[in-house]
Amino acid sequence: MKKFKSILFCLMAIMTMSLTVAFAADWLPSIKTMGVSMAAVGSVYAEIWTGELVGQLNVDENGTFLDGIDSYDQYVGNNVIHLVEAGIEPDVLLNNTTYPIPLQQLDDTDISISLDKFQTKVTPITDDELYAISYDKIKTVKTKHGNAITRKKLNKAIHAFAPQSNTVKTPVIFTSGSDMDEATGRVRLTTKDIVEMKKRFDILEIPAEGRRLVLCPDHVNDLLLNDQKFKDQYYNYTTGQIAKLYGFEIYEYTSCPTFTVAGVKKSLGAIAGEGEFQASVAMYIPYMFKAKGGTKVYWAPAENDPEYQRNKINFRHMFIALPKIQKAIGAIASKYVKSS
How, if at all, do strands 180-181 and 186-187 pair? Predict the structure, then answer.
């Protein structure tokens, strides 16, 4: 009896391994023609593509403005992250001659933050598609879902990194170019505006190393039109980072947050009104953080859908990116001049 159980266990192990290899080697249609139940291998399939999606999402972040930002993945539990924010910084004594040195308590507060949940809509894939097509339909769908999640993650992150409005610690300044876009009334960005943001960070005594500026498309185009040095750098870069400019690492992103004519950040995804444009976002990298939680694939086999005989797939990914403190985050918003 023990020998029979051992043989049965080995056969089951071989079958599981064969199915895993089959999926990895793109043999899905062949497996189905052999009569293997998709329900029986659904969990194997989901595990494989969960790993694939996680790998894709990690690669998709490379070369973006999230590069180099502290990862707090290790502090995530049940898709919630616990942060301890120091209430104050310790006073610094210069050339002290008095002992004992006074005690100064740093009051810590535990902050619990739920990660954002990114879910894709369900994609149906019929059995006919799996039989007929010559390429890996499932893998193609997975890639498209991963791209969509990454885009939404980055949109949420750059919006969170931008200040809500102008304060001493979170400066929002306006462009000051001598010319404007006649079609929209938008005053163009100049390098003087970047120097002004540098000045605001200098006032806050922010270290030079770690300053980053993410340019919106309008401002990239303004610099390409008016600054030859920037233009030369732009056409020679090979990653998301362009070059340093006045102490800032320069990145660009196509979906930066929109600001009102009064310099107030609009909600994520809000439609821009008259005189409202995307803004460029400045930040000090050590004050930012990001964290990933769980990633899961949801899969329903076609045999559970006798009417349409279609497989269904979608993905869920947990992630968040925020400033650790509301300091040294800034925005350069485009000034609006209403035409008469």
Answer: antiparallel
